Amino acid sequence: MSRSLTRCLGFTLLLALVFLSSCSRDPNVRKQKYFESGERYYEKGKFREAAIQYSNALQIDPRFAGAHHKLGEAYLKMRDYSRGAFELSRALELAPDNNAARLDLANLLIAAHDLAQAKPLLDTLKEKQPHDPLTAQAWANYYSAQGNIPAATAELQNSIAADPNRADSHLSLALLQMSAGHFDDAEASFRKSATLDPKSVNSQLALAAFFQSRGRLPEAEQQYHHAIDVAPADTAPRAAYVRFLMAENRRADTEAFIRQSMRDVPNESEIYRMLGDFYMANGDVEKATAEYGSLHKAHPKDIQVTKNYIQLLILHGQLDEATQINDAVLKTSPRDVDALIYRGQILIRRRDATGAVNSLQAAVKNDPNNAIAHYQLGMALSLQPNAERAEAEWREAVRLRPDLSDAQRALASSELARGDFDALVHSAEQIISAQPNAMDGYLLRAAANMRRQRFTDAEQDIHTAQAKNPNSADPLVQFGTLRLLQKKFPDAEKFFSQALDKEPSSNDALSGLMNAYLASQQPDKAIAAAQAQVAKAPGPNGYILLGTVLSETRHDFPGAEAAFRKAMELDHSNSEAIGKLGRVLVAENHSDQALALYLQAIKDNPNAGLMILAGELYQSQNNPEQARAMYQKALDLDPNNPVASNNLAYVMLEQGGNVDIALNLAQSARRGMPDSANAADTLGWAFYQKGIYQSAIDQFQEALKLNEKVHAPEDPDVHYHLGLAYQKNNQPALARQHLQRALSLDSKFPNADDARKLLSEIKG
C-alpha cells in the first residue's frame, strides 16, 4: 500500500472518529436517545424507568415539548397527578398545537374536578378537532363530572358515531350506564367493548368487575381468568384477580395464585412483590418483612423492593437496619424524596423532632406536591409540639390527596384537640366516604357529636364502628366516654374496664376509667387502677397517669415524682413526663432541679412547650431577661404558639420593652386562646400602656368574666389593672372599687403597695 493511500485512509478514519465523537456530544442526538429509551420503557409498562429517561432528555433540553408530554403521561400512569399536570401544562406551553397534550390535561383536570380550568381546553379541542371521538369522550367526562348524565351520554354516542369500532367509547358508555343504574344496557356495552378489542386487558377486566359488582361471582372469576389468558405476562389482570380473591376473603387461594404467578412471570417486579404486599394488606408485618428481606437479597438493584423493605423495617421497629439501607439510598441519591421521607419517619420514631423536621422539609422542598411528605412533616411538627404548623401540613396533604386517610385522621385528631367539632364532622365524613368499612370515621364523628351533646347520633355511630371491628377496644372506649358525659358513671366504668380487658396497653381506656372514678369521687380506685395497669402493661403513659392522679388528688409529690421518673426511663424524651416532673419538683421546692431538667431536655430535643415552662420558672425566679429569651426561642420554634406570645408580651410590658411589638404578640395570643383570662389580661395591659384605656377596660372586664365562667378564683392583679385603667379613664369611683377588691383578695399581692398608694391619691 502506498504511503499516500495509507495517509488518505488514516485521514478518513480520523474524520470518522471525529464525526462519531461529535455525534456522541451532540445534545440533540443525546436527548433523542434518552427519549427513545423512555419510549421503550413506556411501551413495556415500566413507567418509573420511562420517567427517568424522559427527565434525562429534559436535562439536556428543557424546551423539549415531546419529552414534557410523555413525562406527564408517565406520571399519570404512576398516579402522580400533580407532576403529571405540570408536565402536560409545560408541553402545551411549548407546543400550543399539541392537542394530544391538551386532551390529556383536560381529562386530568376533569378527574381532579377542576372543571373551570378544563372547560377552555375542551372548547379549543372542539374547535380544532370537532369530529374526533377522543374530543367527544373528553366532553362526556366533563358532563359526567357535572352530573349531567344525558349530556354525557349524548357525547359518548357522538364518539361512537364518529368511530363505531372504538372499544374505549363503548367502555366509557358502559360505565356511565352502570352509574345510572341501567345495568342491562351497561352489560351490553361492556360486552361490545370486549368483543371489539378482544386483546384489550382494560375491556376484559371491566367486564369482570361488572360481574363482580352485580354479585355474579362465578362469571367474574371466569372473566378474570380470561383476561389473564389474553395477556399472561401483563401484571394488571393478575393484580385484579388477587384483589377479587382478597375481597372474597379467600386467603389460601390468593396466596396460592400469587405463588403460581411468581413462577409464571418470575422476572416482573410487580409480580414478585405481590406476596409481600399480600402479607402487608392482611396486617402480617412480620411475614411481609421476611418476604421483602428475601426479595432484597435476590433483587438488590430493584429500588422499589428496597424502598418497600425500608418501610416495612420501620413499621416492624427495626430502625437500625432501616437506617443502614436508607442511608445507602441517600448516598447514591441525596435528593430521593422517598428516602428523605423514610429518614424522617425513622427520626420521628426515635423522637428526634428537629432531625425529622429537617429531613421532611427537604423532601417537601424537592417535591412540593408529595402528600406523604406533607403528612409526615405534620407528624414531626406535632412532636415539637407545633400544633398549628402540623395542622397546616396535614391540610396540605389532604388537599393534594383527599384519599390519604392517615392525614385525614391526623387532621381530625387535631380538630378534636382544639374543639372545632364542625370541622371534625367534615373530616370524619371524608374518612367514612373514603373507607366506609373502617371504624375510624364513625368513631371520630361520634366524638364530635358527643361534644355537641348529640348523644343519640354519637351512640349510633359507635354501634356502627363496633360492627365494623368487633375485636377492637376503641368502640368500648367511646361508649365509656359517652356514658361519662351523660354522668352514668357505673356504666362508664364497665365499658372502660371491658376495653382494658381487650387491650391492656390502651392509654385511652385507662385514663377514661380513672376519670370515671374521679368523677364519682373515688380517687383511691383511680390510683389502684393505674397501679394495676402499669403492673400488667408497663408503659410511659400509664406511669404519667399514675403520677398525675397522685399529685393532683393526694398531693403525694414523692410518689408522683417516682412515677414520672419511671415514665422517663421508658421514654427519655417524653415531653409530658418531663413537664409534669418539673412541676412536681417545683411543688417540692426544688425549682433549680426543675429548671435544670427542662434545660437539659431542651438541649437534647428542642421543644416549645418545655421552653415555655423554663421561661415561667425564670420569671418566678425574678430573671426576666432569661425568661424573655426562652419565650423567644419557643416562638422561633413555633411562631404561632399563643402561650409563648402571651408570656413574652407580658414580660416585655413589665420590663419596658417595645409596646407595639408586645401589643402584636398579645393580640396573637388572644386570637389563639379566646377563652383565656390570662391572655385577655395581657392584651388589656398592652392597651393600657398604649394609652387606649377603654379597650384596656374591655379586656380586663372580659378576663374577670372568663375566670368566673370556669369558676376560677378572682385574680387580684386583674382587679388592680382594671382599677388603673378606670383611674386613667377618669372614672375614680370604679377605680377605687377595683383597687379595694384587689387588696381584699390578697393584701400582699405583688402590687399591693402601689394599689394602696393610688387609693390614697384618688379623689371622689
Layout of SSEs?
Elements: H1 3-25, H2 27-43, H3 47-60, H4 65-77, H5 81-94, H6 99-111, H7 115-128, H8 133-146, H9 149-162, H10 167-179, H11 183-196, H12 201-213, H13 217-230, H14 235-247, H15 251-264, H16 269-272, H17 274-281, H18 285-298, H19 303-315, H20 319-332, H21 337-349, H22 353-366, H23 371-383, H24 387-400, H25 405-417, H26 421-434, H27 440-451, H28 455-468, H29 474-485, H30 489-502, H31 507-519, H32 523-536, H33 540-554, H34 557-570, H35 575-587, H36 591-604, H37 608-620, H38 624-637, H39 642-654, H40 659-672, H41 677-690, H42 693-709, H43 716-728, H44 732-745, H45 752-761
Overview of the molecule:
With about 775 residues, this protein is an all-alpha fold. Among the domains are: about 200-270, Serine Threonine Protein Phosphatase 5, Tetratricopeptide repeat, CATH 1.25.40.10; about 405-470, Tetratricopeptide repeat domain (Serine Threonine Protein Phosphatase 5, Tetratricopeptide repeat), CATH 1.25.40. The chain is built from 45 helices and no strands. Helix 19 packs antiparallel against helix 20 (about 320-330) and helix 44 runs antiparallel to helix 45.
Keywords, please?
764 residues; mainly alpha; Serine Threonine Protein Phosphatase 5, Tetratricopeptide repeat
Unreliable spans: 1-23
Shape label: elongated
- How does the helix and strand content classify structurally? mainly alpha
Total number of β-strand segments? 0
Q: Major sheet, described briefly? A: none
The CATH topology of one domain corresponds to Serine Threonine Protein Phosphatase 5, Tetratricopeptide repeat
Number of H- or I-type helical stretches: 45
Terminal residue distance: 130 Å
The name of the CATH superfamily of one domain reads Tetratricopeptide repeat domain
* CA gyration radius, whole angstroms: 34 Å
Strand proportion: under 5%
CATH class of one domain: Mainly Alpha
Q: Give the mean pLDDT.
A: 88
- CATH architecture assignment of one domain: Alpha Horseshoe
* Percent range of helical residues: over 70%
